[in-house]
Design brief:
The complex is a heterodimer of chains A (233) and B (407). Chain A contains 7 helices and 10 strands. Chain A is of the alpha/beta class and 233 residues long. Helices cover 56% and strands 19% of the residues of chain B. The chains are: A alpha/beta (233), B alpha+beta (407). The structure holds adenosine-5'-triphosphate (ATP) and magnesium ion.
């Protein structure tokens, strides 16, 4: 078996609230192997986003260990985490999170700016990714000129531009209608077939059905973890 | 992150909020402009004073004949001459004295052909020219023999020459002072204004004896109203002045307790204090102007803080895709510096334009020095970094998750 791209051991996260420490994640163990396509499900407040933010190196755990591509991330400093976010993974948000003043091409190229790639290479790579998500002709448009589904495609292109090993997406179709959602999921499926590991959060069983494996959260714990074929519908 | 790309982004960010950037810049423009103008004026004033001092001659003091009591009637200052040529000769013997010149002066009407002009006529001896650092532009000076034999020769200043002789060469021409013909034997080198703002070139210098006999009509021959003394060094001034006082009291047989019948004035000290005043004024002007620069800097800080808050989400997004703290720091710092730099450049030009305008319209002396411009520039860059630092650091220290959540 190949080494896992992600391995979390006893991962916990507590938030400080006015009412004291609130444990949102209570000791989660999970392994994700290269090339997997995982849907994370669970009711609101079950800790899915908390978990994704930890996987995405956007937040640091209160307890446990997180190995990303073999390195323990749990104790890394902010700059090391930034480099991981930049090179190793791509994050896709529910709200797209494009920078409104920049052209789509510049948005897609932005991660490359932070990895110190020269202008010509940035331009070419961004163009390639936009073409890949089918939006090459809008390269010079601003984000507010295109639809939500198209914006999410641009966000995916941005996540892909640094050729990461895995893509993390927290409810990427949460703001989209069902038809557009299907298109986005088809894109994720295509990327996964190309060998990229995909982990996404969704509330919708239809969406989750695109994934090969489904992990269910409840109250800060993983309560089920199985392959999609086995889902009794 | 690469500097080129960051500069481009800073430019974009400035362009996104043009009015705000412009207003913030205006603070810097005014600050730097004020510094440039104030420095130009301050240094100009200093330069002007320095210039006058250097044309005045150095280490000078004058002895003026004072009041003397005659039959209970006190005449006013310089009422009746209490000094005489012999006093001057005695002072010349004192240690540390370089030049002594008994002097008589007053405004008199000059006539040449159909032209007439009123100028300051000074009757004196040759050491006067040396003490006051007068140069001869054309012709020659008069000598001791001219004083001895009271010849009617005159040296005239540039202003007098222009007004009386126009384009003609005055040397060798005969003009009249109080009906008496005088031959112009030389034209004096130009000095410009003195500290009181009077034109020093509106002057006629003639031998003392001639002045006393033909121009001023002194009642007692050999008496003078003023003696100009030049000491050999600034350090010796005090001592020479004291020695002059005791010498004159002794010569005038003034008993203990009787007040001096003469006055002394240290011209060089007056000039020095004038120079000191302008120096202080110049520093003060600069300091006041610097305050506006400070206010401009605070304006930048204020706007950058607003900008960081407004763009919290953007910062979160940038961090999420791999911006390190120092990338964010550099970005906001660059924006601050760019605004401050652009403001500084505009302020520099505006300041120069206004300073030149002041010079053109009022004739006030201004000095534009490269150092002043450089200083203003360095200060502006420092202001940008100093006041941009805190907001930029605030941005860089944001937590990516918190920033992303910000609405
Ligand atoms: N920054 C925070 N401070 C305090 N509590 C938090 C914070 N973020 C999340 N929580 C709490 O932690 C719990 C888990 O939140 P999380 O966002 O991970 O849920 P979720 O599974 O993503 O829910 P949803 O499906 O609604 O997105 C929730 O009860 C939430 O209120
Ligand atoms: Mg969530």
């Amino acid at each position: 078996m190949t080494d896992p791209v992600i391995r979390v051991v006893g991962l916990g996260k507590s938030y400080e609230t006015a009412a004291g420490l609130f444990p949102a994640l209570k000791g989660v163990d999970l392994e994700i192997r290269p090339g997997e396509f995982i849907a994370i499900m669970g009711p609101s407040g079950s800790g899915k986003s908390t978990f994704m933010n930890l996987l995405g190196c956007l937040d640091t755990p209160s307890s446990g260990d997180y190995f990303l591509a073999g390195q323990n991330v749990a104790h890394m400093d902010k700059d090391a985490l930034a480099i991981l976010r930049n090179r190793t993974l791509g994050f896709v948000f529910q709200g797209f999170n494009l920078l409104p003043r920049m052209s789509l091409q510049d948005n897609v190229a932005l991660p490359l700016v932070y990895s110190g790639v020269d202008k010509e290479t940035r331009r070419a790579a961004a163009r390639e990714m936009l073409d890949k998500v089918g939006l090459g002709k809008y390269a010079d448009s601003l984000p507010n000129r295109i639809s939500g589904g198209q914006q999410q495609r641009v966000a995916i292109a941005r996540a892909l531009v640094n050729k990461p090993q895995l893509i993390l997406a927290d409810e990427p179709t949460g703001n989209l209608d069902s038809h557009t959602s299907e298109e986005i999921m088809a894109l994720f499926g295509e990327l996964n077939r190309e060998g990229i590991t995909v982990v996404l959060v969704t509330h919708e069983p239809d969406i989750a059905a695109h994934a090969k494996r489904q992990v269910r959260f409840l109250d800060g714990h993983i309560v089920s973890d199985h392959l999609t074929e086995a889902v009794p519908e | 992150m690469m500097l080129r790309a960051m500069l481009g982004e800073a430019w974009l960010a400035m362009g996104a909020n043009r009015l705000r950037s412009a207003l913030t810049m205006l603070g810097m423009v005014i600050g730097v402009g004020a510094v440039v103008i104030m420095m130009a004026i301050g240094q100009g004033a200093q330069y002007a004073v320095q210039q006058t001092i250097s044309t005045m001659g150095s280490n000078l003091f004058i002895v003026l004949s004072g009041s003397f009591t005659a039959a209970g009637v006190r005449s006013g200052s310089a009422g009746g001459p209490t000094l005489n040529v012999a006093d001057a000769e005695a002072i010349a013997e004192l240690d540390g004295v370089v030049n002594v010149a008994p002097t008589h002066q007053g405004r008199r009407q000059l006539v040449y052909g159909s032209q007439n002009w009123s100028a300051n006529v000074i009757g004196t001896t040759p050491p006067y020219l040396e003490a006051r650092a007068w140069t001869i532009a054309s012709g020659a000076a008069f000598g001791d023999s001219d004083v001895r034999s009271a010849t009617r020769v005159a040296l005239i200043g540039k202003t007098t020459a222009q007004n009386l002789f126009g384009d003609e060469n005055p040397v060798g021409k005969t003009m009249r002072i109080q009906q008496n013909p005088f031959i112009v034997i030389g034209v004096l080198g130009s000095k410009g204004q003195n500290l009181d703002g009077n034109d020093q070139d509106d002057t006629v210098i003639i031998p003392l004896t001639t002045a006393q006999r033909k121009v001023f009509g002194t009642p007692f021959l050999g008496s003078v109203r003023m003696i100009m003394v030049q000491a050999d060094s600034a350090e010796n001034m005090e001592r020479v002045m004291d020695a002059t006082t005791s010498l004159l009291r002794q010569r005038h047989r003034l008993r203990e307790g009787v007040p001096d019948d003469f006055f002394m004035r240290n011209l060089s000290a007056a000039a020095e204090s004038e120079a000191e005043t302008t120096r202080t004024m110049s520093i003060l002007l600069g300091a006041i102007a610097s305050i506006s620069l400070l206010v401009g800097g605070i304006g930048i800080m204020n706007i950058m803080l607003v900008s960081v808050t407004e763009r919290t989400r953007e910062i979160g997004i940038r961090m999420a895709i791999g911006a390190r703290q120092r990338d964010i720091l550099t970005q906001f710092l660059l924006e601050a510096i760019m605004i401050s730099f652009a403001g500084c450049l505009l302020g520099l030009f505006l300041g120069l334009a206004i300073a030149l305008g002041i010079n053109a319209f009022t004739g006030m002396v201004i000095v534009i020095s490269g150092t002043a411009a450089l200083v203003a520039f360095a200060v502006a860059a420092t202001v940008g970094i100093f006041f941009g630092w805190y907001p930029a650091r605030k941005a860089a220290r944001l937590d990516p998750i918190e920033a992303l959540r910000y609405q």
